[in-house]
Amino acid sequence: MEQIPTSSTASPTENVRLGILSMLLAMVLMTIMNALAKILAESYPLGEVTFFRNLFALLPAVAMVVAAGGRGCLHTTHWQGHLWRAVVGLTSMVLLFWAYHLMPLANAVAISYSAPLFLTALSVPLLGEKVGAFRWGAVVVGFAGVLIMVQPGPDMIDRGAIVALTAAVCYALAMIAMRQLGRTEKPVTTVFYFTVISTALSALALPFDWITPDAHALTLMAGMGIAGGGAQYFSTRAYSLARAVVVGPFSYASLIYATILGWLVWGDVPAAHVMIGATIVIASGLLILYRETRRAAAPAPQVDPCPKTQAQSAGPVRTA
Known about the structure:
By secondary structure, the chain is mainly α. The protein has helices spanning about 10-40, 45-70, 80-100, 105-110, 115-125, 135-150, 160-180, 185-205, 215-240, 245, 255-265, 270-295. The chain has one domain (about 10-205, about 215-295). It contains twelve helices and no strands. The longest helix is centred in the N-terminal third of the chain and has 30 residues, at about 10-40. The chain is globular and about 50 Å long. The chain starts with 11 loop residues before the first helix and ends in a 25-residue tail after the last helix.
């Protein structure tokens, strides 16, 4: 997710409306990508599924660069930061695709909502941020919701839940990397290099586990990658049109979409404890978002989305 200065030519009402619609569309595309990944993981290796997701996502990523100003968006001096963001982001993606294969789609999505909780906790040792009692309270309550969802007991916790939680931790690390990159890098730059590096890294697994896809599978893979790249574009656009506190909550619509799609395609209906835990986690995430938005309430300067010269810092940006 990106937070970029809004355009001075659009009215606040139009920005809010378009921002919300962009976020809702991003979540529809994200759910489609997740569902296609779950379908493909039933017949193809995870490494191969991940590779094609990233390969076809290059199409919307390149389109984002062209729309934002072309080659000027590609300038960077932070290669190590982009590489680390790609490594942890790709790891999170592989684990999440695996979780989709192991458990109902809505369950995995619900558990993945714990990522902001891990982000808040990890931001203290890794970013040196100060977290007040209010946000720590939200984190504790949120993790209580996670425990309700995974229901640990004397027996081993469900493997899918463990995988989904690990994916959430890796995504939290990716968000920390994106916060650091966001101090100097444009959102489109981060998205582009993540897609390029992730494609190259995921290709390393192909010689070890490969099944040649037929035309039908290749079509699904293309749809998965384009939907994933489109979701990145529209979530970026949403945060450029309205404040995070306005559009951020609408990202949780993905749980509704995942529940509906999981029921239609696989006949899965989340258990009551999953929905109760997810509600607690979502509420905690919204509280954290609200407090962080209040802390960062200072208006950002108006800048071009992607100047054709060296990128300058435009204040803190959030990327996903």
